[in-house]
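ENTRY TYPE: paired fold submission
RECORD: A
CONTENT: sequence, then structure tokens
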Amino acid sequence: MGTLGAVSFYIAFLSHTTVFESLRMRSVDSLYRWRAGHAQNSQALSQIVVIGADDDSFHKINRRWPWPRPVHAVFLDKLEALGPKVVALDFAYIGRSEGERVDEWLAEAIGKNRNVILASYFTEGGKHLLPLDRFHEKALGLGFANKIEDADDVNRRASFQVPLEGGREKVPSLSLAAVSAFAGKEIGIPPNRGWQSYRYSPQKFSYIPFWKVVAGKADEGLVRGRIAVVGAVSPSTHDIHPTPLGPMAGVYIHANEAASLLEGDFVRSGFLDHEWIFLLMLAAFFFAIFSRMDLLKGFLVLLALGFLLVALSGFLFTRMNVLIEPFSPVWVLAFVYGVCLLRRSLSAYLENRALQRQVVMDHLTGLYGYKYLSLRLGREFQNSSAEFCYVMVDIDKFKDVNDSHGHETGNAVIVGVAKILKNGVRASDVAARYGGDEFCLILLNCGRPAAEQTMEKIRKSVENASFKSEYGDFHVTVSIGVACRKTVDAKTAQDLITFADKALYQAKLGGRNKICVY
């Protein structure tokens, strides 16, 4: 459930953040580039020619940009002789020029061709900017030339119609108006603002520089009977837009849209609005796989499934025009593997900790065991420059307790004494069960007076403690031996143990229930 919850968080929130949105869109762009790199020439490419106002044309025509309208009028006069079926002009003929006669000349050229589609534009506020009325009246049609940009400023989507204010009338795009005129009928279009096809890079389209048309040197075979999409292609005109295939002049974006319309080549978004269901199902499927595999096998499956998901996305997009952005499925795959890996690592860590605890801790009392005690004492003896005391504690006449009250009661006494010891020392001190009814303490940063005071409190607590059995309540006492490092001549940790053991023996000989310091 935790894995599905995390994946749901990614779908609902994380995937829409700037970083993840960028990664998702870049994975989409990689599919576009792959498809364009393997696209075959189609019938649509033979029906479109791009005529570009490029740097060479600026040099040949020898006029500053934007060119005055007489240049456009001459261009249209020359273009008519080449016989294009439709001319889509991606130029802004908005407002009057420097002279009435100039505008009239251009209007006559537009009307003479009888096949010109002019560009209109929408402002950011939604205002529709139309060409000058005299141009509009002479043109065959009108289409907006705006491009749609995603949040990262890349143009990936196409809008073929935009409703005007009130929604009664819809303005077609420049490409839709041109293709409809070319086909002589209305063209079926996908839902508004769908993915742009971008099947063809600019190099796939037939191209003629603007100056060649003006100079009468254009190849008629590239123009006659085609859709001529005309616009600026020079970076200096600022009509270059980021696309999945790289920077592309607006005229090539219109050409791609026109090719898409001619071929009915519309990209469909895989799973549409239900992609979250697909991703959750993938997460559950991946979790079921990885939770049953070891680390190496799981990693190999991760690589194989990741490759398969990317390959499947590429196949669906290239062959079936179904777009499933590959980043999210691959990210879910890697995330689920990471969760399973973390889960397994955490489980192994907890198991190891439990095993270590079983080795280090005494299972009956919860105190440290003898192995840890000896290691810790050796470390403190070697590394600690401060005073510390080693204490041995033995329950007096414990055999009588077992004989009189039974071993279960004896165990209860051991547990009770262990609790008193643990509560009687500081958290930094070490309390351990040495074995049987014998305990040891390491009192850190503690001299002889403090050690005697601490152990006296513990001795009295044990003496006053009451234990129950089926034969009635009873009491026990303890004998205690103390050896402090700086008050004895101990060369090794074992010497300290020996001295504490001797002190304990003296306490036993002295009548028990007492403390002796070596």
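RECORD: B
CONTENT: sequence, then structure tokens
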Amino acid sequence: MTTLFERLENNAARHPDKAAFIYFEKGIWKTVTFQNLLDSTNRFAHALQSLDARAGMRAALMSPPSADFFSLVFALLKLGIIPVMVDPAIGLKKLSECINESQPDIFIGNTTTHLLRKIFGWGKKSIKLNTSINHLSRPTPHAPRPTDHRVMITDSAAIIFTSGSTGTPKGVLYTQSNFSAQLDMLVETFHITQDEIDLPAFPLYALIDALLGVTSVIPDITFPIPKNIDPARTLSAIQEYKVTNTFASPVVLDKLAGYGIKHNIKLPSLKRVITAGAPAPTHLQERFRKLLVDETDLFGIYGATEVLPIAIVESREIFEDAQYETAKGAGICLGKPVNGIEVRIIEISDSAIQRFSEVEIQPVNGVGEITVRGKSVTGSYIAREEANQLAKIKDGDEIIHRTGDVGYFDEQGILWYCGRKSHRVITKDAVLFTEQIEGIFNTHPLVYRTALVGVDQEPVLWIELEKDARNSNKENIKKELIELAKDHPQASKITRFLFAKKFPTDVRHNSKIVREKLSELAK
């Protein structure tokens, strides 16, 4: 198997002068070629070696994204040092927990994060080397040592923490083979070629682009949180650089659609748009398609930090049939599993499962927990034995991942999503699944989205209205929502409706609803 660093070397050898990154920084657009990227990577690797950084060490990356940030990540991969990636937006308390849990040997930060490290004692029991990108960028007098970057495919490649939107962030341990399988599946699933130009909305996607030999156009090298992107600059970049692909969360599509429709912008260069992080509502997909030409595909991708991709669906499939089923309470259409992934639906349980032979597979249309098997499926979380017990099932020599999502397969083999297992509302009479119930109420023309939560075994529906409808008569809206649900056996039993100006969402994609906070507010 070709290692991750070898993929970068091969890309630089094939097209050294091709742009790897085109990015906007301090008022101007700059370019880094694949040869530039490889040269910078080797310089960082040399600097790390001179500080006695060695294979097997873990390095906490607490420096904001920059052009050098990507070179540094590849330098770590070259040396067999394991990058630890934590989203700083999770908050200082959780950040402290994640860094201490990962037990890094190296801390690479800037002035601010080094100060926080000292104040909060991050990694004081494990860190042996503190440095920064600026320090590593300085010339070193030491000659580089020979490096064998042909690490075993089972070797750890990176630790990537989940966003913690549905619980405490967990460190997902990726191997070289996990990453390579993921890259190969993305190429096969979306027919990505090396002449593509991508606009990634998340730093990890830019790293993936470089490994695939694809050019990344980055309108803001700092990668602001998705809801704070500059839609004018982003749309202008797509047009100017003839971007063929973009990978973005629903909140980014929403920002781009709002600005693009207002200014009558079209994006004819785009071959495909891929959205992930949370399901994109049908009305959002319809709005965003106004910016696209008829030939452009708009894919919804289902996956998780632990495994991506799992399933895909194209927007026109949603528009044709699925949206009407969603409006009747079917849940959200996820499409069909991608090649290389085996999805099975098992009986819902909150307990650990030791062996797959113990589980009961659900029949067609039977709602259960979604499980995934495949080469891209990560095998474990770090320092979380209980989480591993609850999320992983042994099946011979393989590990099957329990996603924590509930769903079902219909008669056509289409996968439907009903919500998070932990978010199901158990009443005295029934079990309600969030996405099935919300799909009914979300059809109201003044409703942007809804969120079902449970309080003392009673269902409560939170409502976020469209921006221009926030001053509407809420009592009338309640009556109309009750009318919408009158024929559904479960949704018709909801009698408590609450309104929020904006729902709390996850820190990474700003798209997943943090229902735990809404549950507390409803008490």
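NOTES ON RECORD B: The first helix runs from residue 4 to 14. The mean pLDDT is 94.
STATUS: closed
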